[in-house]
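Title: [Solved] FAD-binding domain-containing protein 3D structure

Original question kept below for reference.
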Amino acid sequence: MGFEDKRVVIVGGGLGGMAFLNAALYAGLKNVQLYEQAAKFGEVGAGVNITSNANRILDAFGLQESMTRKSSGKLPCYMEYHNYKTGGYIGHIGEFSQPHARLLHRAHLLDSLKERVPESSLKLGKHLASIDRNTATGAAPYTLHFQDGSTAEADIVIGCDGIKSNVRREMGLGDDPNYSGQVVYRGFVDYKDLPTETAALLRKTVNFRGPKRHLLILPIGNQETGTDRAAVIGFMSEPLEAWDSESWMSRSDIDSLQEHVRDWCPEVQHIIAGLRKGSGDGKMLKQALYVRDPIDKWYEIKSEQKDAGIILLGDSAHSTLPHQGQGTCMAIESGIALATVLRHWKTDDLEAAFKFYQDLRKPRTDRVTRTSYEAGKLASSDSPSQMSDNFNPDALRERMRWIMEYNVLEDLKTKGQGYLDFQGSRL
Ligand SMILES: Cc1cc2nc3c(=O)[nH]c(=O)nc-3n(C[C@H](O)[C@H](O)[C@H](O)COP(=O)(O)OP(=O)(O)OC[C@H]3O[C@@H](n4cnc5c(N)ncnc54)[C@H](O)[C@@H]3O)c2cc1C
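Solution (posted by the thread starter after getting help):
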């Protein structure tokens, strides 16, 4: 049974939507189309850390080689902590189980996710404006209206349109995202623009831990393919009144980040100088960090029709602060779970399938949202006395182990017994 022949429409072609499309193809859903508002695929100019729990799934899709080509190679540890003022080593977190974290440019991850997807399933320049729930006999359950006047018909709609999701709004969920009190400054430094010793240090994932702020460096890419750069993510506390962009994202003067770290160690000053060398206009990306509280229900079922509905996936459903590097990873996990459930569900009862999927995913994503908030507090320090004395990297590692060592494919196999028909499944 299942829903393999249904018209599935994905709204949003970010990392979450593209991961779901890969999962749908992998699972064997036959009729899937993705609609993205941008005229061409692109991601914000920043790095991303894809951890073992998500790499397990991408490897199952066959993307390991493609990702590895553009990712950092084997790193000495998961993260190393340094004192903001002295630059001195505080401690580190060892790697988690295989496959280890891969750090790469977001655009390169998107390229990998595009590799196995037929062009014909991607529709660009399609901003979803509204969704009609049709009642006429013979009509498709849903008609999606795009800003350019075009439409699409669907039995199942997957809202992968991010934290400001229109699909979510169309479902009648009117809650507002919450400002976290933090902004992030994001940019890249070329290793050649750093003094040799600082460049060598930043070939590791390094967190300069300061009071109520921290500067995280992700060594993305690799030297063989010339994709290696130090991705800089400065998490700083700033009141929202100072914020002047409605889009939560803007270009900011590098001076503004420098102001936050003026009295920090020489290595951090090298990073600021490196950012300036690499930036033509003296600016870098600045983003206000928002998150939504978990919601009770991620889906709706079309009234009087048990095999049509709308569901949210990725940041539209389970946004999280980035302090455990899990937003994209959770979307990747959710993608394979939802696609597998839709393809292999034993009956034609979509509500039961959606509920099973949500019950499988929500406890985990809610916990990630909660612990990421706490991890943000631990990544910085609230007072100078917490700088090294009370800081225990081993405890941090233990806090995150349950995230990294989880295998959603195994969980589906176990919990799906009796609900999913595994015949022909690639699980
Ligand atoms: C500073 C920072 C660092 C992070 N680092 C990591 C990390 O290391 N690892 C990790 O796993 N996660 C990380 N994340 C989280 C991650 O970026 C997000 O969780 C992830 O990108 C969410 O993907 P998404 O596809 O759900 O949403 P989005 O990335 O927001 O994509 C939504 C897509 O939908 C499209 N869209 C929106 N509205 C419409 C519409 N009306 N019609 C059509 N299309 C539409 C958009 O154009 C976009 O392409 C980080 C986040 C931040 C802020």
